[in-house]
Amino acid sequence: MSTGFAGSRSMDERRRRRLASESSESLNDSSDESTSHNIARTHRFAAGQFPLRTLIFPKRWKLSLYYLPVFLCFSGFIAADIYRPQFSASGSALSEFLSLEHSPLPVYLTGALLFVSGQLSLLIGSLRTQSLHDFSGRHRLWKWVAAGIFLFAVCTTTQLHHVWASSVIELRLFDWGPHTQLLAWLIPALCIGLSVSLMAYLEMRGDRAGLNFTIIAVAAYVASLTLTLTGNLIPWEAHHLQIGAGLLFFAHWSLFTSLILHTHHLLYRSIDLPEKVPSRSRQLFANYLHRRRIKRKAKCVAKAFRQKEKQSLKKIEEEETKAASPDPKPSRPVKRASRSKPTPTPEAVNEVTTTPPEKKSAPRSSQKTVQTQPAGKQKSKVQKKNIRVDSGHDPELLKGLSKRERRKLQKQWREEERQRAAQQEEDWS
């Protein structure tokens, strides 16, 4: 079995690919395994290299032995600063030691806590390298998270960010006016903090408890920074120091707790990333847009149906008014023209003179009957042969009706047309 693959970027990558290929060959049917077998295999991989079960307990509530003392210690610092005027004289060594502003003890404690948090990040990264499905190398994000936390610990303990800001002003690397001292360390801190928070969020999506504490830590850091920058606009100026220290201590404690809980999740639940679940808010928004689009289409269709119904009703009313109104009697210009004798032309006179005497002896009554036949009546007979009786009606009115109703309506139309034709014949007669 070859241990190298084309495109591998490091030894860890090749080792994980080899482990994945060997495990896929050795396991007959991994899809038939139960959840307990998967968890047991995860335990074997996790405990084979790291003897951590003596430190990270299987039950999550027992982890309170780590983060509860830290919380009580930070709370004691704040309470001692508030009540120190009552049990020590101002200016004494004990008062200076218990003060949040002058005592080095909170600074060293926060630095140590952040250093332990960085170590936990490296431990989480080493646990994530045992994942058989992480071929993209997502475990490397924890190295960057640990580097960011270590840098934060150094800046908190030694005030390195203030030294950097002063050196920027002395060397005149850039000039932002009176805010150069603040922006010189604030902008890099925001960039590094946002990138570290995003990496931790991407890696902790399967661990609900660790992710929640990470979000709380980020919110507490933002609140502490806001209080530092806008302290003059917030009331209770006498207690700004205690409020700011409390927010900062709570943010450090939340970060430490989230990393401990995520280590427990990797050891006892799963070292793989969860499958990507679609966002609930995006799904709700898509469903809302889909329902809105359907409502719009329904409104358009209903409007079109109403317009068609109005048009059909209007046509029916027009037909009823036409059928109810009596037709005016047509004038008889043809009969008047037949009665009026036209002036004979010279050609017609010659034809009359050249005709034989038998035609002259023809009876006048037959000629009168031939001449008195109206031309309009003959034309109407020709039109009746070529045109249907119900052609004057709109066939759209028959849509949506049953076959029986169609026949009944067509029969009614034919009877109306026959009555009109009979009335016209009576008028012409």
From TrEMBL:
Keywords for this protein: Membrane, Transmembrane, Transmembrane helix
Name used for this protein in its record: Uncharacterized protein
Originating species: Gimesia aquarii
Region (Disordered): 1-35, 311-429
Residue spans of biased composition, Polar residues class: 363-375
Regions that span the bilayer: 65-85, 105-129, 141-162, 182-202, 209-229, 241-261
Record keyword Transmembrane helix present: yes
Ranges annotated as biased composition (Basic and acidic residues): 387-397
SUPFAM superfamilies per the UniProt record, alphabetical: MFS general substrate transporter
